[in-house]
Design brief:
The protein has about 220 residues and is α/β, with parallel strands linked by helices. It has three helices and ten strands; from the N terminus they run ββαββββαββββα. Helices cover about 30% and strands about 30% of the residues. A five-stranded mixed β-sheet has the order 7-4-8-9-10, covered by helices on one side. Strands 3-6-5 form a three-stranded mixed β-sheet, with helices on one face. The chain has a two-stranded antiparallel sheet with strand order 1-2. The termini are far apart.
Length: about 220
Amino acid sequence: MTMKQPGPRGGAAKPVVGRGGARRRALLLGAALALAQLAAGCASAPPERFYRLAVAPSTAVPVVAAAGDGPVVTVGAVTLPALVDRPQIVTLAAGSRVEVSEAHRWAEPLRFALGRVVAEQLAAALGTPLVYAYPQLAVADAAFRVTLNVQRFDATRGVAVDDELLWTVRRVADGQLRSGRSSGRAVPADASYDALAAAHVEALAAVSGDIARAIGELATR
């Protein structure tokens, strides 16, 4: 509300701004400052980087393997601890502290990535391309089904990676089972997230080797 008061010596009246107008100006100024701070924060945020667990080409199944070679194996959906079942890469820090990086993320759901890596490593160990990981579908009825339950997926950047999994192999024909708990440890080449991802793949190779041996035992019984 604006009121007019007589000016000095009968001059023109001067407007007087009410308290409502001053409050509106203060609110607008505060909103403008908040938007400026938000824009500055967004401008300074580091770009997101995405990483995948990739098996080295040297360990892939030879191209001479025919589609009919070896048994059909499927790796089911992987169960993960809630701590690492997220897009952000989680690493261990001092004491009981963990670091969840918003700027460094997995390029695919970790439960799919782990199943895919184990399937690729099993294919190399068994010498057959017929190993499928959830959610892929097998082209033929599976002879063996593998289930994975991750107990540990720990990593300290530049120090060590420790992976531990419970696994079960079931022969579909008669339900015969093999199960175990396997662990793998690897030392990253440096403190980068690229080296950390590569170390996880190296650590998982020890687990996949145990599973491949269990499949071999069931295949010959």
